[in-house]
Amino acid sequence: MQLDLGGKMVLVTGGSKGIGLACAQSLLSEGSKVVICSRSQANIDRALTALPGAVGLAANLTSEQEALAFVDKAEAAAGPIDILINCAGAARRTPPQNLSPAHWRAAMDAKYFSYINVIDPVVKRMAARRSGVIVNVIGGGGKVASPIHLPGGAANSALMLATVGLANAYAPSGVRVIGINPGNTETERVTEGLKAEAALHGISEQNALEKMVQRIPFGRMATPEEIANVVTFLSSSKASYVTGVIIGMDGASNPVVI
Question: I need a surface site. Which of 16, 50, 160, 200 has the fewest CB within 10 A?
């Protein structure tokens, strides 16, 4: 299938590892111009070895000022942004008895505002050009509450509402906004979550992993590449009438209609 992504300028936040890196690799293979972002320059340098021709910029996207400066630098380096893929930021998993209000504020900064601070300037520029696609990789914790992921789940819920609301607001301007909710995926973030799950239930991390996989009807976690394949399709003209939706990718772990 020809996805017509050649020459498109793609910005991938959180593009140095995990799902973000897989998205950057997939879009690059389609001939897109790719700019990635991470807080860590070392992570960027490592990722760029697997992303020939891509550009990497370090920024703390929880800061509105740094996020705007990052967007300006990205466009100066590679041109106006056609596609924005948001994968940056994740709230730390914490057993509920250890939570404090600071954890909830930190989760909003890490997940919600790291997306919104980039979306805000980008969606307005896309609207002015009457063209653009934004894909937010969010997470199923915003629909199904997990005891160890309550602050992060709350941030995900807010992000889902922002996603569909912005899609509605900017559809007349030719901009599409879509969300994807991956389930458990083979990334470092899931490994971190297993530690909190093990601590909550007083079991080993290996047992926590086995229990998690048992809850997935497919009998395995998703790979970052599987998520990236869907992101790539949604970014393309083949998905030109898809907007304002949140697509679940949890291997049928939560078979509900909402």
Answer: 50
